[in-house]
Design a protein that fits this description.
Efflux RND transporter periplasmic adaptor subunit, Elongation Factor Tu (Ef-tu), domain 3, six-stranded antiparallel beta barrel, about 35% strand, conserved putative lor/sdh protein from methanococcus maripaludis s2 fold, four-stranded antiparallel beta sheet, alpha+beta
């Protein structure tokens, strides 16, 4: 019995007391709940409540600036290019001389044609002079024949004499007819030479390449010394009426219409334009499942055909949480804001950001409506700092 008491007294009871001590039974008990965080420092900063805002949804696509009317300027001559007066990007006026081709062969043809006309003119003068004399001789022979014919009726002259006079009259008439035939030949020849001259002059005009309308040189296809060929373009000219063309996904065929206003961003000039859609294709391209839209660009000398840009089309509305851009800070590669609890203590909260809308940043995740955040001067905030 004494051994049992000794066992309990020196073994069981010490072990029980040790277990109770380890479990904190003999220590003061702390009531369940949240311990207040110790405030590191007090920094007064502006705060703002997080709210959702209604914003427009946009569809953004690439596109380029194009001329409303493009013309490929070519020639009908096979000739060497002697001179080019413009370069790509130059603005030109209607009728302005763009290039000059070698027209030496044509000038020779024109010279020969003019010389031929001079010869024909001299030949006509000679023929007309001869015709005048031949007609006079014919009229004299005709009167003589009439007189002899009357005398023959009166038996005053012999038949032989009458026939001799008649033969002379017929010869004079043949001379007149021959000269008149020659004049007709000269007229026909003159028409041929004049047609040749006119054709040569027209062909010579093709040696001087001129702008068909006011516009800009989009592309220069040749250089001085190159051989120009009939029908092969030397220049591509676009007029000053510029449009922006884009290929829009077919899912928006009923959401984009002529008259809608779109935003255009031309990266090259760093400008934004508000423009109206003036053309829309109602057919879908089966290759890329898109349709074409064109928006009218304003007159701006800094815009050139071929410039790259982006078109932004308004397609609907939605609610988004937007916070001031000054509220967002970088924590390494992550975005974060400082949320403020009920006691005015700041806590670093990581967020996922989206696009920037009117100077505010979209928060995709990490914040909820009604939360309070530090609005600016976030570089002065810290985890656990009291900001209000």
């Amino acid at each position: 019995m004494k051994s049992v008491i000794r066992f309990i007294l020196f073994f069981i009871i010490p072990i029980a007391l040790f277990i109770l001590w380890i479990g904190g039974y003999f220590s003061p008990r702390i009531e369940p709940g949240y311990a207040k965080e110790e405030v590191k420092e007090v920094v007064k900063l502006p705060t703002v409540k997080v709210t959702s805002q209604k914003v427009y949804r946009y569809y953004q696509i690439d596109g380029s600036v194009v001329s409303d009317n493009n013309a490929k300027v070519a020639t009908k001559l096979m000739a060497r290019i002697l001179k080019i007066n413009v370069k790509e990007g130059d603005y030109v006026k209607k009728g302005q001389l763009l290039a000059v081709l070698d027209d030496s062969e044509i000038r020779q043809n024109i010279k020969e044609a003019k010389a031929g006309l001079e010869e024909l003119s001299k030949a006509r003068e000679e023929a007309l002079s001869g015709l005048k004399g031949a007609e006079a001789a014919y009229q004299f022979a005709k009167r003589t024949y009439e007189r002899f014919k009357n005398l023959y009726r009166e038996n005053a002259v012999s038949k032989q004499q009458l026939e001799e006079i008649e033969t002379k009259m017929i010869g004079a008439k043949a001379q007149v007819d021959a000269i008149k035939a020659k004049l007709k030949q000269l007229d026909a020849k003159e028409k041929q030479v004049r047609a040749k001259l006119k054709y040569a002059q027209i062909m010579q005009s093709y040696a001087y390449i001129k702008a068909p309308f006011d516009g800009v040189i989009i592309k220069k296809m040749n250089d001085v010394g190159d051989m120009a060929a009939p029908g092969m373009p030397l220049f591509v000219i676009g007029d000053k009426n510029l449009k922006f063309i884009s290929m829009v996904d077919e899912s928006l065929i009923n959401k984009v219409n002529v008259g809608d206003t779109v935003d255009l961003f031309i990266d090259t000039v760093g400008k934004k334009y508000s423009a109206k859609i003036v053309e829309k294709s109602n057919s879908i391209d089966p290759m890329n499942r898109t349709f074409t839209v064109k928006a009218q660009l304003p007159q701006d000398s800094s815009l050139k055909p071929g410039m790259y840009g982006k078109m932004r089309i308004k397609i609907g509305e939605e609610k988004k949480i937007l916070v001031p851009a000054t509220a967002v800070t970088k924590w390494g590669q992550l975005d974060a804001v400082y949320t403020v609890d009920e006691d005015g203590v700041a806590h670093l909260t990581f967020v996922k950001t989206g696009e920037t809308v009117n100077g505010k940043v979209e928060i995709i995740s990490g914040l909820k409506e009604g939360m309070e955040i530090v609005a600016s001067d976030v570089d002065k905030a810290c985890e656990g700092c009291k900001v209000r």
